[in-house]
Amino acid sequence: MRRRDFLGAVGSAAVAWPLAAAPKTERTRLISVLMTFAEADPEGQARLAAFQTTFRELGWIDGQNSRIVVRWAAGDMERTQRFAMELIALRPDVAVVMSAPALVVMQRETSAVPIVFVQVSDPVGSGFVASMSRPGGNITGFANFETSMASKWIELLKEVAPHVSRIAFLIHAGLVPHLAFWRVAQDAAPSFGVQLTAAEVRNHSEVERAIAAFAADGNGGLIVLPDPVFNTLRDSIVEWTARYRLPAIYPFRFYALAGGLLSYGIDQIDQWRGTARYVDRILRGEKAADLPVQAPDKFELLINLKSARALGLTVPPTLLTRADDVIE
């Protein structure tokens, strides 16, 4: 039984909030949204719904004073690039983009359209903004992880699987935030007594091969970095880690809900509500350059005890008490 179900039920109870005053506008405002999930994926739908609901509460009614155009890339990098270019070509009033690979394309395509990103790691190091407090240019948004999180993922994985002496980082080759995570992990590894391997992949087909190759030697563990390709493969990745008996930690709760051993990351849904508020502020006259990039300040730990038992692991009681959710 998962803990905090009662609190979750109370928190999700329907509340009829009054709508904000409708913005005075002489024309319909166009908002383009690029999702990296597949359209049929409930995780993607939940994020879009959070954005749309908050946006409506702020007075923007789709089909009246606003129009939202959505594209679903399904973790495919070619489609991500094509859709990013397509959405900017529509000349939207504001573009919303999910993930660093899509933001790279949008940044290249326009310096005029305001862009609000969501779930992008290391936006300063990636060159998207000048600083977190004063982003400058036409881009602002919501970061999902600081690179220091790489050390925390190692710590948690070792805590639940102390026998692990080798850890592979599943890395999307060439992605700047992933390289930043990797550098932090390399610095932290000696203090945890582990050897690191960069399991670099470029597409869906390479992921299982990378996991299987690393698992061929014993005492291994896996850290899956935040990435749209990995997110869309979450069920398969969880299955492969179970098949090859690799203890693994993941960046988002939906991995643990799908059967993954551990997840430690942010509340993604809440960031989409914040994204709607930033879009509203830009449409009402504020500049993206003046809106500080928001860093997450709350993280949640999920532990899947069924997966732990299947791997022959005993989760320390101290770790269980720190968990936000324990899945039996």
Describe the protein.
The chain has 2 domains: 13-144 and 268-297, Response regulator (Rossmann fold); 149-265 and 300-327, Response regulator (Rossmann fold). It is of the alpha/beta class and 328 residues long. The chain is elongated. The protein has 13 helices and 12 strands.
Give a short summary of the structure.
This protein has 328 residues and is of the alpha/beta class.
Give the arrangement of secondary structure elements.
Blueprint: H1 5-11, E1 29-35, H2 42-57, E2 66-72, H3 77-89, E3 94-98, H4 100-109, E4 115-120, E5 139-143, H5 149-160, E6 166-172, H6 176-192, E7 195-201, H7 204-215, E8 220-224, H8 228-232, H9 234-243, E9 248-250, H10 253-257, E10 262-266, H11 268-283, E11 299-304, H12 305-310, H13 317-322, E12 325-327
Parallel strand pairs: 1-2, 1-3, 3-4, 4-5, 6-7, 6-8, 8-9, 9-10, 11-12
Antiparallel strand pairs: 10-11
